[in-house]
Specification:
Length: 137
């Protein structure tokens, strides 16, 4: 294990990279992926929690999605009306997402299991490596 300092947003990228390779075969690689996912998930839990929309916004979002799927002019007018009626709720959500983006810029130190180039399975692609580069030595 090695202590690696990065932005929380970078940790989210590494996590997503681990998700991308989690089905690649190999016991030691799978263990490393699983352990790192657990560590990163725990570290990013406050960010995840801060980004969860409230129930009222979810209800509004679902209604807007249904209307948007209709694709009619009448539906567009209803969406515009809903957005105007709930502009405070929408602003709260925008502020919430801004706070999450700020959190993703914060530094975090994680004790992660690193990989050497030799330990990478042959099935790993350049796209995978780009996301995992912070844990490859």
């Amino acid at each position: 294990m090695e202590t690696i300092k990065m932005k929380k947003g970078e940790a989210a990228d590494v996590f997503n990279g681990l998700v991308d390779v989690k089905d690649i075969k190999g016991k030691s690689f799978a263990l490393l992926v699983s352990k790192n996912m657990t560590i990163i998930r725990e570290a990013l839990k406050p960010v995840e929690d801060a980004g969860k929309p409230n129930e009222e916004f979810m209800k509004l979002s679902k209604e807007v999605q249904q209307l948007t799927a209709e694709g009619t002019d009448e539906a567009k007018e209803k969406v515009a009306k809903l957005e105007e009626e709930h502009k405070d709720l929408i602003q709260i959500r925008k502020d919430q997402l801004e706070d999450v983006n700020t959190m993703l810029l914060e530094d975090v130190e994680l004790n992660l299991h690193t990989l050497t180039e030799e330990e990478l399975p042959d099935e790993v692609t350049a796209a995978n490596i780009n996301k995992l580069i912070k844990i490859i030595k």
